[in-house]
């Protein structure tokens, strides 16, 4: 069991996110060329030693060399999650912002979208109890294009936002895992060992930010009016209404205004999808407060 406690700080507001998830096995997914295996093997040896001391997690390593092998390994993990596996997936390979994972020695690529799809299957099977750790340059790009209309591919991920050297990873990951085995708390271990070199993303955070951003960009003002009018036009066109009467326009506008307004029911609906059955940590009032922080920051930058 690991606890997540994330804080947003802004003008006159602090929102704490506290949620728990269960993991029981660290799975090290390695795909590196032979000449780069030294640091990886040393890190694995260190983590195996931590696991042998006893603790809350098992440890295993899976070596893959092609895209097909990686996807097969991920599908196997999804099947195991249906039987109780709750993994921390550590990706030990190369990656790029544009092309995703680079697998060796084959040179195959798995794009971020394809990887997201495979991880989503695992996380659904694990009931949103998957943690991903990327020893991969630009691993944070997995989190950029997530949509609340689909299940999240992870509960939590830790990844670099920039190119990062293997020496830095080798210096950081073993102490991180040692602390993780000692505390059983992944966010505590992250804050103590990785916070200055890797970023952390959590599904509750992404969910709340998505709707706060929606309020800022589409919830009021000219942007909201323009979006509403565009949807009204599409609605009428689909029904073959070329010249709507004033009464028809009034009724459709009222429907669209009600349908586009963010509500607690809408949050709960999308939480059941994106969070895979978990209740959202932020309610509508929290999201509106966060949106106000974003709005003030945006306005301050525009001055």
List segments where confidence is low: pLDDT < 50 over at least 5 consecutive residues: 1-15
Taken from the alpha-carbon principal axes, the silhouette is elongated
What proportion of the residues form beta strands (DSSP E)?
15-25%
Radius of gyration: 22 Å
Task: Count every beta strand, where a strand is a DSSP E run of 2 or more residues.
Answer: 11
**Content-based structural category:** alpha/beta
Q: Main β-sheet: number of strands, strand sense, barrel status?
A: 6 strands, mixed
By DSSP (H or I, 4+ residues per run), the number of helices equals: 10
Kindly, what is the distance between the CA atoms of the first and last residues, rounded to a whole number of angstroms? Answer: 46 Å
Helical content band: 40-55%
Reading the helices and strands in chain order gives: EEEHEHEEEEHEEHHEHHHHH
What's the average pLDDT? 86
Numbering strands along the chain, what is their spatial order in the largest sheet? 4-3-5-9-10-11
